[in-house]
Amino acid sequence: MLDRIQAFLHTLTAPHHTQEFAPDDPRVAFVALCFQVMEADGNVSAKEQQKFRDLLRERYALSEDNLKALIDIGHQAGSEAVDYYRFTSDLRRHLTNEDDRVELLGILWDIVYADGQRSEIEDHVIWRIADLLGVSARDRVLERQQAAARATGDHL
To answer: How far is it, in rounded angstroms, from Cα 48 to Cα 109?
Structure first.
């Protein structure tokens, strides 16, 4: 009887699957925000998806399995969210350097421009994210301009 109780308690406390990413992991927050931006205009293009995956590979150097797990967890978290605050507050705790938060915005802009189009809705989403991250309007606009230049091959 005691063995059964111990086994049951072990199943409650043991991880149900090997999940490397905790809910407050800044990588999950970043991926969730990426999905919020990609899905903002109602059209997630193959180019946006590819740019997104490439940026994640470059930024986090994950195995293909861990990359897929991160994307799945981040997408689910983004789908369940009612606003951006949860994710931006997780990121603010981990990105204490303002330059890192500005760089994050640049990555979001790179995803927006991956398909060659920018919508007002995407602008609005990034404006809200920038505001919650404490990134100035000036830096937000500069990052947008630089991402547009990178997308067209012109560099500012």
So the answer is: 11
For residues 96 and 87, give the distance between their C-alpha atoms in angstroms, rounded to a whole number. Answer: 14
pLDDT at position 17:
40
> Cα-flanking dihedrals φ and ψ of residue 104, to 5°?
-60, -45
For the stretch 34-51, pLDDT in tens is 999 999 888 888 898 999
What's the CATH code of the domain at 125?
A: 1.10.3680.10
Q: Is residue 59 part of a domain?
A: yes
Q: What is the pTM of this model?
A: 0.81
Give residue 46's domain range: 24-152
Instruction: For the chain, give the mean pLDDT.
Output: 84
